[in-house]
């Protein structure tokens, strides 16, 4: 019996290590996921919890962007905006809370809350920025420390855009077509306070016994099959995720229940984003499960789900496994950025003159790329890197210690900013595999890794 229990335990351990896909980003602590589907691609904007938390509170300086077309391999585009550089007038480094980006007529609008200083909007010609602030001041600012956070923006089929936001209540504005101003003729100078009633947001009580609704913060506003959805953090702290629906973009809202309840390894906040992509529905949230994670060091996670026939959302359980199948195979014969990653251990990414690259590579660290289609077989592998110490990339398939296909030696390139391409022959690998780059060497930080490619 004991042996059986041990065997089952080891299987669960091995199984969960091998298939872990949540959190989907391991190189940074990323929170408050805001996915955007655009140009057949999913762009994921996140807030970013610093590795070193200051004063045991949210320590958040910039917003990051990732993208995917297969929902399992995520390409890191780095920090696309920061308070210090891009919202300079606010004279504040910390407070880069939950962001959302939306595209309109080829321009990308990044709605950024500045904790304690309102909500601003930045604009770019590309989803990766550079984002510039046209107003030089907040879009909305009630001068309340908590109220103006968590903006969510949606453009309806008739072209009308709306922005909802707020803690501990929810407000909205009717955005003008320029997306950087709003109709001042409704509500209080343009700002409409939503009726916070139990029919709309569920019934709850505060710790002091006073009645309230379940709504806390983090709204996510969208429309599907003519039904409007408002998803939000609910039920006090620790937060669950709840939702309400309406047949109109401005309510009245009908409380529909909880989507994700409280589970171990979720942080005391939770914050959701929902999209449909290539015929599937996806639920983004955050947890604190990465090593050294916590309430102020959170990580973005992802689950696939199916709406019920009546449009209601089923209860979603957070898993380590996350997304089971890739939506498409990756072509290894095209240049792939090293920062396109399904899972990694030990490494970080940084941005330089050649874009984003993988860095802080030490002995034993590795990258995993899922569902790589080698077709009839690869013969050569090349990696572009910069190094002063040197090391090796072991190219393996199907597991970190899976079949060794080749070893690419990275030698001193003559300077940390000198990039060179290194090549090696590989054993003919055919068909679809998960690909692993395992880094080996004994000299501390071994090299930086920019991109790779196989050839036939
Ligand atoms: O990330 C800072 C705050 O925590 C967000 O604005 C909230 O939604 C919660 O996730």
TrEMBL record:
The family this protein is said to belong to: Belongs to the glycosyl hydrolase 43 family.
Residues the UniProt record annotates as site (Important for catalytic activity, responsible for pKa modulation of the active site Glu and correct orientation of both the proton donor and substrate): 150
Domain of life: Bacteria
Keyword Hydrolase: yes
Keywords: Carbohydrate metabolism, Glycosidase, Hydrolase, Polysaccharide degradation, Signal, Xylan degradation
Active site: 51, 217
Entries under SMART domains matching the protein: CBD_IV (SM00606)
Sequence ranges assigned to domain CBM6 in this UniProt record: 334-455
Gene Ontology biological process terms in this record: xylan catabolic process
GO molecular function, one term: carbohydrate binding
Signal peptide: 1-20
Name this protein carries in UniProt: Family 43 glycosylhydrolase
């Amino acid at each position: 019996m004991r042996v059986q229990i041990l065997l089952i335990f080891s299987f669960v351990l091995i199984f969960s290590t091998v298939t872990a896909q949540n959190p989907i980003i391991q190189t940074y602590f990323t929170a408050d996921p805001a996915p955007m589907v655009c140009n057949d691609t999913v762009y994921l904007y996140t807030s970013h919890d610093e590795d070193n938390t200051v004063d045991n509170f949210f320590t958040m300086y910039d917003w990051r962007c990732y993208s995917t077309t297969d929902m399992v391999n995520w390409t890191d585009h780095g920090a696309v905006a920061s308070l210090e550089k891009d919202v300079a007038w606010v004279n504040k480094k910390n407070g880069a809370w939950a962001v959302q980006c939306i595209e309109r007529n080829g321009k990308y609008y990044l709605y950024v809350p500045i904790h304690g200083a309102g909500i601003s909007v930045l604009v770019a010609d590309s989803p990766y920025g550079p984002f510039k602030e046209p107003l030089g001041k907040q879009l909305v600012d009630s001068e309340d420390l908590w109220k103006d956070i968590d903006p969510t923006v949606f453009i309806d089929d008739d072209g009308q855009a709306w922005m909802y936001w707020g803690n501990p209540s929810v407000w909205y504005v009717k955005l003008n077509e320029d997306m950087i101003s709003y109709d001042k003729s409704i509500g209080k100078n343009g700002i409409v306070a939503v009726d916070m009633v139990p029919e709309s947001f569920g019934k709850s009580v505060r710790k002091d016994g006073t009645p309230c609704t379940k709504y806390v913060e983090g709204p996510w506003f969208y429309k599907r099959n003519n039904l409007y959805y408002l998803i939000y953090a609910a039920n006090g702290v620790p937060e669950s995720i709840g939702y309400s629906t309406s047949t109109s973009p401005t309510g009245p809202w009908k409380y529909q229940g909880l989507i994700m309840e409280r589970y171990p390894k979720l942080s005391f906040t939770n914050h959701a984003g929902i999209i449909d992509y290539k015929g599937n529905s996806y639920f983004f949230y955050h947890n604190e499960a990465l090593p050294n994670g916590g309430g102020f060091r959170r990580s973005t996670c992802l689950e696939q789900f199916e709406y019920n026939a009546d449009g209601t959302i089923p209860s979603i359980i957070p898993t380590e496994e996350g997304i089971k199948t890739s939506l498409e195979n990756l072509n290894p014969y095209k240049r792939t950025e090293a920062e396109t990653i399904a899972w990694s251990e030990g490494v970080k990414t940084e941005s330089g003159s050649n874009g984003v690259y993988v860095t802080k590579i030490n002995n034993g660290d590795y990258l995993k790329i899922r569902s790589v289609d080698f077709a009839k077989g690869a013969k050569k592998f090349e990696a572009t890197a910069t190094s002063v110490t040197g090391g090796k990339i072991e190219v393996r398939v199907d597991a970190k210690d899976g079949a060794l296909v080749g070893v690419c030696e990275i030698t001193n390139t003559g300077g940390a900013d000198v990039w060179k391409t290194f090549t090696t022959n590989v054993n003919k690998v055919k068909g679809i595999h998960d690909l692993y780059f395992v880094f080996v060497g004994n000299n501390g930080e071994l090299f930086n890794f920019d991109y790779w490619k196989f050839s036939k």
